[in-house]
Design brief:
mainly alpha; Serine Threonine Protein Phosphatase 5, Tetratricopeptide repeat; Glutaredoxin; 3 domains; five-stranded mixed β-sheet; 6% strand
Length: 411
């Protein structure tokens, strides 16, 4: 056999084998479209070793990881797709969003700036760029970009006006925050020392931090507690991050390494609010611990809220009666953005029950392994099946029965 024949054979062996992967690729794309991101990852990830440079495969796998909240992995695969197909604006949009969600803001800004030159009339990319500027703290740059967006796309004026209002609040944020009252080795406490609740709230935050840290196997630290005495000041500050009226943020919430609390001395309802506030603080602290354990990767909202209810508390919310029939898993995360507060409370009741059964099934150590696997990009059903020794479909089918057997509903 001649050298030419050997070279030809070597070239053929080096080509991607598309006979088998093509159906799996199409199936994976369909799963992403259906919102079954875990199924899409399971279908698409095995194709990568034989097709590492396929931009279509890398794009859809990145989309699937994004849907699983595994933003770092999403960004890695979308980066490959972007390097192979720099003129595809869909890749540009999702790559920028994944970088932003993964917290890689400077790289996201660089990517968006590059794509803005390639797609100067793309309103969506300009809006994403402006939002990333705002997250990075470049409020002046974000304002200019949003104003440019309003000119480019007049239909976006309502959204732009909302963003400009948020930017006004962010630029005044430092003036709205209470002064530093005490700095511990783990967090800074900002508030009015004359507030009679300040001292015990600080102690309860520290106790909750220690307890929740031990539960999640991390040391929750380097966060700030903003303790507002006046309701007007709390509302103005909360409105920066929660633009719409939302009863679920009535007394406390967390955002990007901050725990924001309204002092119970100013709550309109009379009585001792100690237990309710402690429960709320523990719930919000659990969110900080989950974010630290997983680096904000891989955990769907329903699981995050459910574990915060089980390990942290419910802040006085009634969560003992999950809805019948249960909210489908595909719709569960969106329930928490529902304007109907009663529907949101049903969502909390359900995820509290689901997380309770999950904790019974896996135990504390198993739940921590579960979170670690999700953070590493494992599909949730596969991670559960591996640890629980039963299909995730069985969990979805049986959790109401198991919860009822564990804690019978009270009439």
């Amino acid at each position: 056999m001649s050298i030419r024949h050997w070279v030809l054979i070597a070239c053929l062996l080096a080509l991607p084998v598309w006979g088998a992967p093509l159906p799996a690729l199409d199936e994976g794309i369909a799963l992403v479209g259906a919102g079954d991101y875990a199924g899409a990852v399971a279908k698409l990830a095995p194709l990568v070793p034989d097709n590492p440079k396929d931009s279509v495969l890398q794009f859809w796998l990145g989309r699937a990881y994004y849907g699983q909240h595994a933003y770092k992995l999403a960004a890695e695969h979308l980066a490959v797709a972007a390097s192979r197909d720099g003129r595809n604006r869909d890749i540009a949009e999702w790559y920028g969003q994944a970088l932003r969600a993964a917290g890689r803001l400077q790289l996201a800004l660089d990517v968006y700036a590059d794509y803005r030159e390639r797609f100067p009339d793309d309103a969506t990319l300009l809006g994403d760029y402006a939002a990333t500027q705002a997250l990075a703290g470049d409020y002046a740059g974000a304002r200019a970009s949003f104003q440019e967006l309003a000119k480019l796309d007049p239909a976006s004026k309502g959204s732009v006006d909302d963003w400009l209002r948020v930017l006004d609040g962010l630029s005044q944020r430092a003036q709205l925050e209470p002064p530093l009252l005490q700095r511990t080795s783990n967090f800074g406490f900002y508030g009015d020392g004359k507030d009679p609740a300040a001292s015990w709230v600080l102690d309860e935050v520290d106790k909750a931090r220690a307890q929740v840290s031990a539960t999640f196997g991390v040391r929750v630290r380097n966060f700030r507690v903003l303790f507002f005495t006046a309701e007007s000041a709390y509302r103005r500050y909360a409105h920066i991050y929660v633009p719409d009226d939302n009863d679920l943020h009535a007394v406390a919430f967390t955002v990007r390494g901050m725990l924001i609390i309204w002092s119970p001395t100013a709550w309109p309802e009379p009585g001792d609010h100690h237990d309710e506030l402690v429960s709320t603080v523990r719930h919000e602290m659990a969110h900080l611990a989950i974010a630290q354990r997983t680096e904000g990767q891989g955990v769907p909202l329903w699981l995050n809220e459910g574990l915060a209810c089980v390990i942290g508390g419910t802040g006085g919310m009634q969560t003992g009666r999950p809805p019948v029939p249960p909210i489908p898993l595909a719709h569960l995360d969106s329930t928490f953005q529902n304007p109907d507060v009663s529907r949101v409370e049903e969502g909390y009741s359900q995820v509290h029950a689901m997380a309770t059964v999950l904790m019974d099934t896996l135990g504390r150590d198993g739940v921590l392994q579960f979170l670690d696997r999700l953070a590493d990009g494992d599909p949730l059903p596969a991670a559960y099946t591996l640890l629980a020794k039963e299909p995730f479909a069985t969990f979805l089918d049986k959790w109401p029965e198991r919860f009822a057997a564990r804690k019978p509903a009270k009439e």
